[in-house]
Design brief:
The complex is a heterodimer. Chain A is mainly alpha-helical. Chain A is built from 17 helices and one strand. In chain A, α10 packs parallel to α17, α12 runs antiparallel to α17 and α15 packs antiparallel against α16. Chain B is an alpha/beta fold. The chains are: A mainly alpha, B alpha/beta.
Amino acid sequence: MANINPKFGEKLKEYGAENFNACYNCGTCTAVCSLSTPEDSFPRNMVRCSTLGQDQEIEASLKPWLCYYCGECSLHCPQDANPGELMMSLRRWLTAKYDWTGFSGLLYKSLAVTLISLIVVALGVVGFAYQQNFELESLMHYGHYFEMIAIGSVFAVVLVPNIIRMWYFVIIKPKKKVAFATYFKASGDFFVHMFTQKRSLGCDDNQVRWFEHLILVFGYLALLFTTVFLDWFDSKNLFVIALGYIESIAVFVITADFVNSRLKKQKAVSTHSQPSDWLFVVGLLLMGFTAFLVRLAIDMNMIQSQLWIFIVHLIVLAQWALIVVPFGKWTHFLYRSFAMYFAKLIELSK
Amino acid sequence: MDKRLGVYICHCGGNISDYVDVEKVREAIENDGCVLMSKTTQFACSDSNQKEMVLDIQEQNLSGIVVASCSPKLHLNTFRQVSERADLNKYNYVHANIREQASWAHSDDKKGATEKTILLVKAAIAKARLAESLTPNKIMAINAVAVIGGGVAGLKAAISLSDKNTQVVLIEREPFIGGRVGQWGEMFTTNQTGNELISSLYAQLVTRKNVQIYTNSEVVSYSGSIGDFSLKIETTPRYISQDCDAKELQKAMDVCPVVVPDPFTFGITNRKAIYGFAASQYPKQATIDDAACTHCGACEKVSKNIDLSLQKEMVELHVGSVLMATGFDPYTPENGEFGYAENESVITLPQFKKLIDNSESKLIYKGKEIKNIAYIYCVGSRQGDEGNSYCSRYCCTSTIHSAIIAKKKFKNIHNFHFNRGIRTYGKQEVLYAESLKLGDLYLQATDDSPAEVYSENGRTWVKVNDILTESKEMQVEVDLVVLVTGMVPRSDKKVSTLFKLPKGRDRFLNEIHMKLRPVETAIDGITIAGTCQSPKNVAESVNSSLSAATKAFSYISKGELETEPIVVEIDAVKCTWCNECSTACPFDAITQGLDGDRKIAVVNTTVCKGCGMCTPVCPTDAIDLVTFSSKEIMNMIDALTEQI
């Protein structure tokens, strides 16, 4: 027996959901969704769970992650209940639910907290630079180390525990029996989905967006690899330098297109932008762009005189690594991949 | 002089001629005694054939015609009109149904169908030989209509009739005009209150010279028929004169020892046996509830304007037509039905509507502030074969509207609608959309697994297998359960029984034809309007009442009425007044009369429908039904049993 909780709907509104209670259960959204299946039927079912406040069921569900937000459902909804944006809001809510620190939820719900965090991090970077007497050498040295340490600690302290929590919510708590060997059998799916987002090709007319996304993922991961392990800023290797340029350009050109799409509200997916969405695309854009500028300044021997370029890059990097990656929309990339993995586990264990 | 008959045998474009050899039929009857001419025709009902028939009748000087074709239900009037156009009295035309009774029924046996057709046509000829010219009965119609029931339907009908310069008598059983609508607050779609509607209608009506209003009055007997009904109306005194002011009334109410649940608020509040009027109740004159009052005399002692010795008064009125607008009762749930009468947090929709109307700032029932409200739909409606199988039409809209009002008027209200499919049809659909947007939750049960109300330690829960959530069992704790009760026919059936108005399977009053004669009843001159006929919302009630008013006016507008001459005749010599016929008559058309000093049966030809129920029960065979006399029927039987 499940208790009805109308207050849950109010809570979801803080995560960007709107008007989903207007749903009169016609099921058009589920019918037009090209990813919904009889076994994993959505979004109507998720809309229903949201209106009735079935948070336990949503918490254990992978359905929000199975949606890649093509926006067809919102387009065809006769009640303007916007099921697509509800699914997005459920992903935000789930991200907050998985996060043991609770900071994700605060960022989603409060623009003020988001802005203050960004400012604190920026001030920290400037303070650190001041402490180092604005010496380029040491700043670049620490900057490089910061990247490695930040990635390692964010994973260890935040992301890995959160993934374990997600696993607990969807596999352990609902008492799904998964054999140990299955975890290995399904692992292929994890990597395929993480790097290719293969499933989103199932959305109607999504090839261009999927391709952009694919380039972005590879560009971003390669840029990360190039700066952290190939030490792009300090490299004398012409191939590495060129590689970094291409990767950074790929990142900021594609994100610039995403920003443009959100500004113009061209598609259903880009019509509703929460601060977390802006933070993600703008952050990524600035990451690519400032990295590009830094390397350009180095190559043009201007970096000593134009040190501010590097400090700005460092600020963007720190905000990205300390806020967006552990608590922001970046986690969707990780959770989505794990969701596909867990879905495969459940499927194989039937 | 023997008849000069013309016989027409129709092919019905193959419907008949594919199975019946119509030419053979024609040959078989062409030499029958008085058949002057006989023809077959592709379509007897076609324009060209009708014209030919008119010419035949005139040129051959025919004194009767037989048409053998489809059912008389379809074309009786067509061929009656043909006769009239040819200056032949229409009762000289006789119909033989050879399509339904022969070709269609015996499509597997063409020979048999043809033989049967020959006999059917011969029987019709036998009847036509005896047919006589008849003239319709004419009766005088009084230009007055009694409207029974002073709710929104009755008021609108009265205004409409008064506009047509008809004398209107409006008779209301209750002490006040206003009916159910007067009890409601704000109503969708116009968002006017019942008070606003009733007050404006009463204001229009009360100034009219051709309208008499009787409140606290009932029709206790009637006689006569369409055109001239005689009604006896009994008026119960109010016992309080108009001079009694508010202060004096208050004093009288204070001393009155009798407390009863107030029907005006559907029993959520009490009142004394002596009581005043609400804003929507007219006339503005206090009254005493005669059924509850013990005549203790306490009020008389404090007010000189109260006189308990007043007696009921009786008046007799004559009207040409009666319009019934007696309304509905809200369904009263059985004890224990969804916790009704057992759980004090369970009330009905009408009670809930009064509760929100009467509450300010906080919604409080039985001392408890109400926040979570469950509405259980279709209580007393759509119950399947055992109960009320109909939909009460108004309740979905009314419930959602009330829930929205509650949400807007009071703080922190959560509405939970346990429905069986929402029917906010037509323009009311926007209300459902608004309710969803406001966050009301809808849970849907199937017919065989309805919502369930249960309580534990004084807390009330409602649970349901919600078919919109994969039939999972959902439950919610609520402060109030509102049973969305539909409409049932009035429990007081005195007046409908008095007029012997037929009722449908739903026990509401029945119209003659749901689509084509929606306000007429089987009793000529009596129309029905509003919710006494079937559940309706206000707009639908007013529609039907204006329709009934126009129909009623059409009965009396010419001052004279024509009725079918197909009625029974009594042979005064044979009749012994055994009373069998009057008992058998469903229309009360036969009464005892005198032939000299002998008691005999007398027929009221304006009331008689020609149904023939009385003829077979007469032991002395003294009754004959015109056009279906014993002689005619015997001749037809002889013809049918003839050997071909």
